[in-house]
């Protein structure tokens, strides 16, 4: 059995897609923010691999071909960004200031907390891209010498936390403006925050997808500067 | 337009991104260069929206699946994560809320100030 899986080109992708479908079904059934399909799929696969005694490397030998499409998928984010250019122009100053404020708040708070907890440089740069979309975040972490798998985990946890806390945060800080709500979710919790923003409304969703790309790009630049501080 | 042709265009732009990454000594992923190239190409009209729209939608919709192999990689990273899992949990939750509040408050304040000025 193990030999069969080691030699297979399709075991990894098939298991991944199957587990993701299971995640979608669970999410549809319970509609809870914590039941993220990606989180569920990951848990199922880790469980299956652990029970069957299959190493991650064996699984990834074939599953890595799914990740191969991450670069073109990120390039494809140019389409929603292009489609929202007019909305961006109308509120340009407010939109850019909001995203810049969010990116700076992210960098500064991660730096201060990392110093407080006495994290190493490697651990610090691993956390720096935590609020941006995984495709860009993985690249940033890799370039800075971070631990990419932890970056991915932290990015996923960030997405879940963002979706769960959004309504609460908006209530406390009295944020009611749709543009502001969308940007806040996209800047803090990337694509997973965007799916939450889509539930709130069209403007929220559009602004959130815009924030994914802009905050992602700004973080690439900001993180390379902030990486020097610890 | 045929989806294969659309995918070809996106893959070619990804390749251009890789070339830029090799040439420019900055810690910027090839995907980000590609994203900027594609927005510029759409904005200047070199590329029409209908030439990439369908393939882009498919790629964006299936994006969460592409993160699965890396997320499963957590099983090998657990050893490195365990000693810092307390601080990481605190930092993740705290900073997410801080970023959300900062972006939301700044954007809303500026939109409202502009609206008041117009009145």
TrEMBL record, chain A:
UniProt cross-references to InterPro entries, sorted A to Z: CidB/LrgB
Membrane topology per record: Multi-pass membrane protein
Subcellular locations according to the entry: Membrane
Keyword tags: Membrane, Transmembrane, Transmembrane helix
Predominant localisation class: membrane
TM ranges: 6-26, 33-53, 65-82, 94-114, 147-173, 206-227
Record's signal peptide: none
Name under which the protein is recorded: LrgB family protein
Organism lineage: Bacteria, Bacillati, Bacillota, Clostridia, Lachnospirales
Automatic annotation (TrEMBL), chain B:
Topological relation to the membrane, as annotated: Multi-pass membrane protein
Subcellular localization(s) per the UniProt record: Cell membrane
Keyword Transmembrane helix belongs to the record: yes
The organism's place on the tree of life at top rank: Bacteria
InterPro entries membership: LrgA/CidA
Keywords: Cell membrane, Membrane, Transmembrane, Transmembrane helix
Principal location: membrane
Transmembrane region(s): 7-24, 30-46, 58-81, 87-111
Protein name: CidA/LrgA family protein
Taxonomy of the source species: Bacteria, Bacillati, Bacillota, Clostridia, Lachnospirales
